[in-house]
Description:
It is a single chain. The chain is of the alpha+beta class. It has two domains: 20-144, PDZ domain (Pdz3 Domain, Roll), CATH 2.30.42; 149-280, Pleckstrin-homology domain (PH domain)/Phosphotyrosine-binding domain (PTB) (PH-domain like, Roll). The protein has helices spanning 2-12, 96-103, 127-133, 136-146, 179-191, 264-277; strands at 36-41, 49-54, 57-63, 80-84, 87-88, 109-114, 117-118, 121-122, 149-154, 157-172, 196-202, 206-211, 217-222, 226-232, 235-244, 254-260, 282-284. Strands 9, 10, 11, 12, 13, 14, 15, 16 and 17 form a nine-stranded mixed β-sheet that branches. It is globular, with a radius of gyration of 22 Å. The chain starts with a helix and ends with a strand. Pfam families: PID.
Amino acid sequence: MCEILSSLLHELNKIDFKLELKNASFLDETWNLGVYKKFEFVPCKEMGITFAYVRGRVIVVKVDEGSVAAEENQIEPGDVLDELYGQSLYRCNRGLISSLANKYRGLPIYLSVVKGFYVGSIYSPLKPIFEKLHLRKAFERKEEKETDYVFTPDSGSGSLKFNLILLGRFQVHSDEKAECIDKAISKALDLKWETEEVIMYVTEREIKIFDKDETEVMVHKHFSEISACGRKKVCPDIFAFIFGNTTCTIAEEFQCLVLRATSPVAIATILELIAHGFVKTHWEV
């Protein structure tokens, strides 16, 4: 038994635990941790956020279009403002936010939030709050609009199915790795090759890409064969990944696929699955 325990502890040493100790304000209600984001905004007089106090929480109900907070959808309706300048906003005095804004006026704004809506679902403790603020219907419409993948059974383990557009496929050098992502996306856009509809399945271990009729397997790669994945900020609906002809640490030939999805949410999901599936995957986001 001691040897088994020692073996398990040895394996745990290889796991990169990404724990956010600040993400604790909902632990009285659920063990499921929400998505915690920390932002630094440029100094400004107004961030463009309208919020409401409900059950001790500061809930974003509106973000002004074109405002600092709205850039790249960093802050969205339904997000919970958790900390401002390092001070907790849970059950805070209603004048605290104004007081902190005046105190640090002219300085960068440091704000931490718990995301209310993330990759197709509402954070469960917030559902009754959304009902009270009439946010739920808006989020359901957003979910219908942005979710362009479905959960499917796959040999006993779950997989996600994505409808994508193949923009290009290139040979790359083995030493380029993540640096090639940007070049490949730019090359695919510049050459404007004939596109092709494809279906991607992502499981816990591998990626499979089929033609649109799912009659031909175009790519079948385990995560250990993927050396890099990522996207460009200027093209949030396009991503690329590089894979070798075998495990990437010993592979001699590498290719890069450039694909387009119908929403940045789907791409974020794919990249996150690849990164979690193979910890040595390089990120270029």
